[in-house]
Amino acid sequence: MRHNKKFNHLGRTASHRAAMLANMSTSLIMHKRITTTLQKAKALRMYVEPLISKAKEDTTASRRVVFSYLQNKYAVTELFGEIAKKIADRPGGYTRIIKLGTRANDGADMAFIELVDYDDNMAKTEAKKGRTRRSRKSAAPKAEATAPKAEEAKVEEPAAEVAEAPATEAAAE
Known about the structure:
Layout: H1 14-31, E1 33-37, H2 38-54, H3 60-70, H4 73-86, E2 95-102, E3 109-115, H5 120-127, H6 136-172
Antiparallel strand pairs: 1-3, 2-3
């Protein structure tokens, strides 16, 4: 019976699943974001978040435990070095899964999983607010409102040129 067995086997044997999750974890740590299927991303989150929590304590024992899961010394170095510094004050939730839609050939739900503290695109979209399209009715008054400012700028420009002219003459002498 499968009572309370909420672990997704992903249609693979235990050794294949462990190797696949270790490789995906290494890729996530090295590249900070990977694209995969939604179910693999959810399984990867359950696999990698305890390893990231373990990396907060930089001891030989914790490094050996993480290495036993990842089997990649470069990924362990990256995890305990740069990533551990960024997540030191975060109590959990180190990864984010964003759904991308379905894959064209087989209809699988696709998603990308990323480390939360390394997401530059989400920070840019929150900070930047672009202009929206408006109808022509609202565009006409704005054009009239900006016209006097353009005339004022034209008035100021000749004064700036006059101020620059003596400086260039003095430099030429």
